[in-house]
Design a protein that fits this description.
Length: about 650
């Protein structure tokens, strides 16, 4: 399996800089006093790998002063993945990463969005041969990213001591749910779980596609309910039968039309046709009368509304003039003479004319500037409402005018036909031909409607076919998901057993009174002494041994865990120095004779001399308050 190795950590800015020594595989220790920069080192590394470090931001109350006050500053991390070297650069505080390899230079976003579908996390997981999986929780889904998995690689100080997983950068019900935590453990340890979670995602996608198709069918039915009712819900087969019948009728009518043209005599007499025409003429006259009456009433209402609008427009114009004039002359004052517009020396409790009047009675006849504006807005709104009403009247008048014109045209046609009939013509071939042509046109209209309905039915049948296929797809996806779940569960049973065995071995040495230690097969959380162990300081060892066990499994088993740990000042969490040093010594028990700790990398930051004597050779840097991690830049200004 792929492993991650950090080769070097650098920080550059206008004021401060830092460049770590070259780090190696195995154990790497940074020792230092509190406040010298141990956590800064871990934070720089975490930030460079895409993490969110709140004290690097200017909008937080707990700022890292050296970094937030610096300019043009960035973090540069040199990493090796499967013998391939990459230099990762991230500016503070930017949400993109620049990656330089021997053959390419790319820039990738930190956060995922509609426009940024491929992120730095996707790139990093791809290099580590870890598939990006989607986790569904209810109607929400969440894509696991590298920082999620890093929660079991980064043993930080901020996370409460009784927790195992590092707190997520953006903590919410989804990112720190039990489902997400289980998925992190399973992806890092269970090789079959990538396929299982992908099968879950495929099943949920199939369900979504099925729901979407169902919605499409329902919307299609809703939009075409009128036409379906008109054609009695017939399918495409029956509609084609109706179409053929109508085509047959047209063929017969066309034959009949030819026979009329060929024959001298007509089947119908002029008297019969005359009666029909007069009856039709009477019906059309009645319709025209009704339309004209309706139009007259609407025109009357239109005129009334139009007059009202004109009056309101005049009022608005007047108000605008008053407001504009006031901007220049300041008219809106009860002490202004209405004749010359100059200030009047009005005595209290008296009108400008001199008569006695209370100020309350006097000022009620004057509007303030604000009141004038409110009145103007109200009047303008009235104009908009009246315009809408006038537009409606205009549409109704046009509609009725078109109807009147249409029926008056028909009346003229019938009047001409009646005129011909009353002249005593016995044969009315032309009129009979017109009736046949009208019938053919009517049938052609029905044929056009049926052909359109056939298209609708064919589309409906296509949608129904797709809905059925999506149903089959859902069933297949569920079957595959169930199979992958069984396969993954069997694999995880072995992982839980191996993890528990190594965890017990480490915990029994880290805690003198630890009799049993294992992880639950439900949520993979540790259970010490059957769940009865209560000593607070035990939480330090409980969490640290959990991380070391994961690292051990990555060495001896083929799991996805990238053989990397970042452990930041664990002795600050409430464990005494002797017990902490004893716990640190257990790092030597990781791996086996074929797979030593040097197959991976553990980076530890700790206090001065707070490590086993045997680990002194692993110290890559010592810092204190006089020699802090970040060094102030010195500039040569010349002699």
């Amino acid at each position: 399996m792929s492993n991650l190795l950090v080769k070097q950590v650098k920080y550059f800015g206008e004021k401060y800089s830092y460049s770590s020594p070259i780090l190696t595989s195995g154990i790497n220790i940074l020792e230092g006093e509190n406040g010298a920069g141990k956590t800064t080192f871990s934070s720089l590394l975490y930030f460079g790998l895409g993490g969110n470090v709140k004290w690097f931001r200017e909008d937080t109350s707990e700022k890292h002063i050296e970094i937030t006050s610096d300019k043009s500053n960035y973090v540069e991390i040199t990493i090796i993945i499967d013998d391939h070297l990459y230099i990762v650069t991230r500016y503070i505080y930017k949400f993109e990463v620049n990656i330089v390899s021997p053959t390419d230079v790319i820039t990738l976003p930190i956060n995922r969005s509609i426009n940024n579908t491929f992120t730095f996390s996707d790139w990093l997981l791809g290099k580590l041969n870890i598939t990006v999986v989607e986790i569904y929780q209810g109607s929400e889904f969440y894509k696991l990213n590298f920082l999620d998995l890093f929660r079991l690689m980064y043993h930080d100080q901020i996370t409460p001591v009784d927790k195992i997983y590092k707190r997520p950068d953006n903590e919410n019900y989804m990112s720190d749910s039990g489902i997400i935590r289980k998925a992190i453990f399973e992806i890092l340890t269970g090789n079959s779980f990538e396929e299982y979670y992908n099968s879950i995602a495929n099943y949920r996608k199939a369900l979504d596609e099925q729901a979407t198709m169902k919605s499409l069918v329902q919307n299609f039915e809703y939009l075409n309910v009128d036409s379906s009712t008109l054609f009695e819900g017939k399918n495409s087969y029956n509609l084609n039968l109706d179409l053929n019948e109508l085509l047959s009728q047209i063929e017969k009518l066309e034959t009949y039309r030819e026979s009329i043209n060929d024959n001298v005599t007509s089947i119908k007499t002029s008297t019969e046709v005359l009666s029909q025409k007069r009856q039709k003429f009477s019906e059309y006259e009645e319709k025209v009368f009704g339309f004209k009456k309706d139009k007259s009433n609407i025109v009357l209402e239109y005129s009334k509304v139009k007059r009202v609008r004109e009056n309101v427009v005049l009022e608005v114009t007047h108000l605008k003039k008053i407001i504009i004039t006031n901007e220049n002359l300041n008219l809106f004052s009860p002490d202004t003479c209405p004749i010359c517009l100059k200030n009047a020396n009005r005595e209290p409790e008296r009108c400008i004319c001199g008569n006695e009047v209370t100020d309350e009675q006097y000022q009620k006849f004057f509007y303030t500037k604000e009141e004038y504006f409110n009145i103007l807005k109200s009047k303008q709104k009235n104009i908009e409402t009246l315009d809408i009403a006038l537009k409606g009247y205009e549409d109704d008048i046009k509609y009725l005018s078109d109807k009147i014109s249409l029926f008056e045209h028909k009346l003229e046609e019938i009047r001409g036909e009646i005129s011909q009939l009353t002249k005593g013509r016995r044969v009315i071939k032309n009129i009979e031909l017109k009736e046949v042509n009208d019938k053919i046109l009517e049938l052609e209209k029905k044929i056009s409607q049926i052909r359109q309905q056939i298209k609708i039915e064919l589309k409906r049948e296509e949608l129904e076919s797709k809905r059925t296929s999506f149903g089959v797809k859902v069933e297949d996806a569920k079957r595959i998901m169930d199979e992958k779940k069984i396969e993954a569960s069997k694999s995880m049973d072995d992982i839980v057993k191996s993890f528990s065995n190594k965890y017990l071995s480490l915990m029994s040495k880290a805690l003198h009174d630890c009799n049993s230690a294992r992880i639950s097969s439900d949520d993979y959380m540790p259970i010490i002494n059957g769940g009865t162990y209560k000593e607070a300081s035990s939480n330090v060892s409980k969490r640290l041994m959990y991380y070391l066990t994961l690292f051990h499994l990555s060495l001896v088993d083929k799991i996805k865990f990238p053989k990397f740990l970042l452990i930041d000042t664990p002795e600050n969490m409430g464990i005494d120095n002797d017990n902490f040093i004893s716990a640190m010594l257990l790092i030597n028990e990781l791996g086996d004779e074929r797979n030593s700790i040097n197959k991976g990398q553990i980076i530890v930051t700790t206090g001065l001399n707070k490590y086993p004597d045997q680990f002194k050779e692993y110290i890559f840097q010592t810092i204190d308050k006089k020699n802090k991690l970040l060094i102030k830049n010195a500039f040569d200004i010349g002699a």
